[in-house]
């Protein structure tokens, strides 16, 4: 709805006994940007989703790290309830002391339920400020009957009134045109351009550095024109490696910019898979070592001698040998037991130490078994 520029006045920490409060003035004078929404959010989950999206935008625009745990982003919630169909808003209760997204959702859901119960029992709600007690899982009274004059607003003596344009309407378009692509738009593009699922596109696009790392990786992998099926296949392969094998293995506190696998190195790994030099299985085994040592995939492949075997003549010999050693299983397959096919693939992979190219193995196996 609108934005206020303010200064932080400090922080109160209330003792659990309730006998005293500590005043922390370390943040006093720090600039604050207060964003106020219209009363359009209808649940704790909606409010939390809004806050997460806002946090992502603030980080994308490099305005703030917006970590709630560090006090860089805070939330006060004004909550009121009314009967279905009523147009007038109910009595407002402000909730403070919510230091995480989980607290925001729990506090709003509790307070909404509390207000409904008070009214259903014939009680009357007071306009007040309440605090969220996470240990007790409920809101508790702090200050009552606060109206505009209770806040003691007064003009900022160090900032004179500023004329913004002699009655001209403010045009936000020039500013909007300078903004980078925001998370929502980036997510949609990742789905369309790279064929990612909504879930994977959200995971990657919600963090600016991760999204940039993802695209820098793809830029270093040869692919056809935008929108091509090959580019989508590359996008899905990179997102799988990034989400499952990298983000899933590093500590939550470690950002993508701190890992030892550069976007160029991940692209090289993907190129080795595409070229058939290594299998996806081998690639997954290499990533932990790349994270630990910072070595390139090609270095590790060379050191370990684990290049994928794609030579048809060499693999044909191995397939023929496997089939001759398992004549009984071959007869079962030819008699209609096609479920045993995976057994042959497994035996070939075992004979090659997992280095056989699965695509080539399948082609040769089907040819030999059809004889």
Helix content: 40-55%
Query: How many structural domains?
Result: 3
Runs in which pLDDT lies below 50 for 5 or more consecutive residues are none
Number of separate strands: 8
* Major sheet: arrangement of strands: 5-6-7-8
Biggest sheet, in brief? 4 strands, mixed
First-residue to last-residue Cα separation: 74 Å
Which range does the strand content fall in?
Answer: 5-15%
**How confident is the prediction overall: mean pLDDT?**
88
Rg calculated over all Cα atoms: 30 Å
H/I helix tally:
14
The run of helices and strands is: EEEEHEEHEEHHHHHHHHHHHH
Shape: elongated
Structural class: alpha+beta
Write up what this structure looks like.
The protein is α+β, with helices and mostly antiparallel strands. The protein has three domains: 37-151, no CATH class; 183-304, no CATH class; 312-369, Arc Repressor Mutant, subunit A (Orthogonal Bundle), CATH 1.10.10. Helix content is 47%, strand content 12%. The chain has 14 helices and eight strands. It has helices at residues 44-60, 101-120, 173-178, 183-194, 198-205, 208-219, 229-247, 263-274, 280-293, 297-304, 312-325, 327-334, 341-351, 358-369; strands at residues 2-7, 11-14, 21-24, 31-36, 75-79, 93-98, 128-133, 138-144. The chain has a four-stranded mixed β-sheet with strand order 5-6-7-8, with helices on one face. A two-stranded antiparallel sheet has the order 1-4. β2 and β3 form a beta hairpin. α6 crosses α8. The longest helix is centred in the N-terminal third of the chain and has 20 residues, at 101-120. It is elongated. It starts with a strand and ends with a helix.
